[in-house]
């Protein structure tokens, strides 16, 4: 019998202020919750491929997460990434213990974006109230804010009141302020910097810097990186003595080249002032695994897409009179690679290299797959049952209950095959945008105009994830197409003009929000408007670089039998960063927008005029200008709702699943 308490707790937690939650989330209480679930989420797939070897441990080590976007239940349908936040909490506890035993430091870092993209975060009001609370069960050392925390006023205040305050001085927002509505003044959302000494005596100065983001609601203020480095407090902070290591974390691309990324600016400012102190950077936002070398004592790590990666960074060689730990812990591999500024990939040194001499700074980096096999392998030597901790099991159980309560696991259809964003070219069977066209044509219908030909436009940025074969749950509609954008239209547009719109849009720049809207919409409307500012997979710098990489043709047969498709990372240290080797998933470019046609003349002739339908996100800034270029003269006055405003772009796929994918129901053979 399951006790009622957990469920009551969940509701209490959503409806009550934070203090009421202490009773059910406090560390004293989770032990009393009896759960049916022991590991992962029920039905989540198990990984089959083990990590390639034990982790290197240095004098100081980091575990890094980024862009979790609410995926704390794990990737239930992907075997490489099926662990949940409870499994991770257990992993963290073991790794901390191991660090203590090895007499080295271990710091946990997160670089923001906790919302938007998963039902676990997006079915609450405000969005993220449950996942933020759950997130705080893990004792991070350094965290920072992402752009998704700042689009919507209620979410910004939630992150401020309920999240930032939990972590106190560990939540770093060097260039982000929030409006104190009692005084009318802007104040720091978290702390500008943290100067602290690690357990083993390293003196660290840390900053948390957001990229030059402009899509925020008016209650937050972001200082551009270039301006921040001129501020008196920053100039003073980087002069602080003594500092053994600077740590700069940021919801920020880690690789230089993007026009709004600010880590290079901050790195240079520190380097100019402190040529001899190592600087370590952690970034995110681009949803990639990446590692870059800035100079011999400065590197940067980015750790993945949506909570499917734990980034591991080990370094050794920091000379500090106060460090009391071990430079080269025994019984485990140690970092062996220099950061080489000439762009060469340093070869991994042979084990005999570790002779204790003065080799300068040595590094190791690894991208860990988010699954229990990996966690158990590194934490407790592959003994899966030993991985669980009380807290971990409690978190796992709570997620299961919450998913039930929010009906996230409700199956509405059976997805007959996997549809992906970029692993199959647009235009071919199995590409999700082709599926979107079919689904839009079948579901976006205004009954009074059903027989009028229509063209329906969406931006490809509105789709955020692949749709994986198997049960289509409510969760999938949040995962795949999370943004609540309404369908608008202009009636009876001459076909000659309408047909030009898509090519014009696709020849233009990638679509993101241009102007900050006034906060008069409901929060969900606003949430949808700004969100696509994240770069899409195939246009990010890293993805572009990957596309240019020659495809590996020499793969050992034995390996390819064992490998499952997944991340195949190339970074400044080469191609051995992925902790579990994967076979490569190809990536193809996607257009800016796609278009569905419906109710066209059945004889194949061209219609006179069409209803031009589009989601509101792209209407004013993109569709109208494109239509003008095609010779039409329309204004927002001509734009009206095609569907009821409540029918949004996160519903059409679900509606299509209910309509077209009933074969194999009710459970599609998998129990999620
Ligand atoms: C995964 O492994 C666990 C433990 O071995 C097992 O109980 C569970 O049924 C497996 N899950 C699936 C989906 O096969
Ligand atoms: C903080 O979280 C509680 C629920 O845990 C929620 O009711 C409250 O609205 C949140 N505070 C803010 C400012 O969003
Ligand atoms: C005012 O600020 C507090 C946090 O300081 C926040 O909880 C509250 O939601 C804000 N009120 C409004 C109307 O934004
Ligand atoms: C819709 O019509 C346009 C032009 O009329 C055509 O180029 C396009 O291929 C059609 N799209 C689909 C998905 O049928
Ligand atoms: C369908 O289109 C008409 C305009 O012709 C509009 O008045 C009506 O509101 C639309 N229906 C819905 C459900 O939005």
UniProtKB/TrEMBL annotation:
SUPFAM superfamilies: 5'-nucleotidase (syn. UDP-sugar hydrolase), C-terminal domain, Metallo-dependent phosphatases
Pfam families membership: NadN_nucleosid_C
Putative 5'-nucleotidase C-terminal domain boundaries: 418-621
Region called Disordered, residue ranges: 324-354, 557-587
GO biological process: nucleotide catabolic process
Signal peptide positions (record): 1-20
GO CC annotations on file: cytosol
Assigned keywords, A-Z: Signal
GO molecular function: hydrolase activity
PANTHER family associated with the record: 5'-NUCLEOTIDASE-RELATED (PTHR11575), ADL392WP (PTHR11575:SF22)
Record's protein name: Putative 5'-nucleotidase C-terminal domain-containing protein
Native species: Helicocarpus griseus UAMH5409
């Amino acid at each position: 019998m399951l006790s009622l308490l957990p469920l009551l707790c969940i509701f209490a937690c959503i409806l009550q202020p934070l203090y009421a939650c202490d009773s059910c989330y406090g560390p004293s209480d989770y032990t009393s919750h009896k759960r049916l679930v022991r590991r992962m989420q029920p039905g989540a797939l198990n990984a089959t491929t083990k990590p390639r070897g034990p982790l290197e441990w240095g004098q100081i080590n980091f575990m890094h997460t980024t862009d979790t976007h609410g995926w704390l239940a794990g990737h239930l349908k992907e075997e490489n990434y099926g662990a949940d936040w409870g499994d991770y909490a257990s992993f963290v506890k073991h790794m901390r213990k191991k660090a203590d035993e090895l007499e080295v430091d271990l710091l946990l870092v997160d670089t923001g974006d906790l919302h938007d993209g998963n039902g676990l975060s997006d079915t609450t009001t405000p969005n993220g109230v449950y996942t933020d609370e759950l997130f705080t069960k893990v004792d991070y050392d350094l965290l920072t804010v992402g752009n998704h925390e700042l689009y919507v006023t209620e979410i910004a205040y939630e992150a401020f009141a309920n999240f930032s305050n939990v972590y106190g001085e560990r939540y770093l927002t060097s260039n982000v302020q929030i409006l104190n509505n009692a005084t009318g003044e802007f104040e720091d959302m978290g702390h500008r910097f943290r100067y602290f000494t690690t357990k083993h005596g390293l003196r660290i100065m840390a900053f948390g810097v957001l990229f030059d983001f402009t899509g925020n609601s008016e209650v937050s203020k972001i200082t551009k990186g270039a301006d921040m480095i001129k501020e008196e407090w920053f100039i003073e902070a980087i002069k602080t003595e003594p500092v053994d290591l600077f740590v700069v974390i940021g919801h920020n691309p880690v690789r230089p080249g993007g026009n709004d990324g600010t880590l290079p600016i901050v790195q240079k400012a520190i380097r100019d002032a402190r040529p001899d102190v190592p600087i370590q950077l952690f970034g995110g936002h681009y949803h990639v695994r990446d590692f870059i070398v800035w100079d011999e004592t400065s590197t940067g790590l980015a750790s993945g897409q949506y909570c499917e990666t734990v980034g591991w960074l080990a370094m050794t060689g920091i000379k500090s009179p106060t460090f009391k730990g071990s430079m080269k812990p025994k019984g485990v591999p140690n970092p062996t690679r220099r950061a080489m500024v000439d762009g060469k990939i340093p070869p991994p040194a042979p084990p005999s290299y570790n002779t204790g001499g003065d080799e300068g700074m040595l590094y190791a980096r690894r991208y860990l797959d988010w699954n229990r096999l990996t966690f158990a392998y590194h934490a407790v030597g592959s003994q899966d049952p030993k991985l669980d901790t009380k807290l971990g099991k409690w978190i796992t159980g709570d997620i299961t209950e919450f998913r039930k309560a929010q009906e996230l696991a409700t199956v509405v259809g059976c997805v007959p095959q996997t549809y992906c964003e970029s692993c199959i070219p647009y235009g071919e069977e199995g590409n999700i945008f082709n599926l979107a066209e079919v689904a839009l044509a079948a579901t976006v219908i205004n009954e009074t105009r059903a027989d009028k030909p229509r063209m329906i436009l969406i931006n490809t940025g509105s789709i955020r994830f692949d749709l994986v074969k198997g049960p289509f749950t409510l969760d999938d509609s949040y995962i795949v197409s999370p943004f609540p954008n309404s369908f608008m239209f202009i009636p009876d547009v001459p076909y000659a003009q309408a047909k030009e719109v898509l090519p014009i849009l696709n020849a233009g720049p990638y679509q993101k929000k241009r102007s900050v809207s006034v906060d008069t919409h409901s929060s969900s409307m606003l949430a949808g408007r700004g969100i696509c500012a994240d770069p899409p997979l195939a246009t990010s710098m890293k993805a572009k670089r990957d596309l240019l990489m020659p495809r590996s043709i020499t793969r050992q047969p034995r390996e390819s039998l064992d490998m499952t498709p997944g991340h195949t990372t190339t970074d400044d240290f080469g191609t051995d960063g992925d902790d579990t080797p994967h076979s490569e998933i190809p990536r193809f470019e996607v257009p800016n927008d796609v278009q569905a046609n419906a109710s066209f003349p059945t004889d194949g002739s061209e219609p006179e005029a069409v209803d031009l339908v589009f989601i509101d996100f792209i209407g004013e800034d993109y569709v109208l200008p494109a239509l003008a270029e095609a010779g039409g003269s329309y204004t927002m006055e001509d734009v009206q709702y095609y569907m009821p405003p409540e029918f949004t772009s996160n519903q059409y796929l679900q509606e299509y699943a209910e309509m077209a994918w009933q074969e194999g129901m009710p459970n599609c053979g998998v129990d999620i």
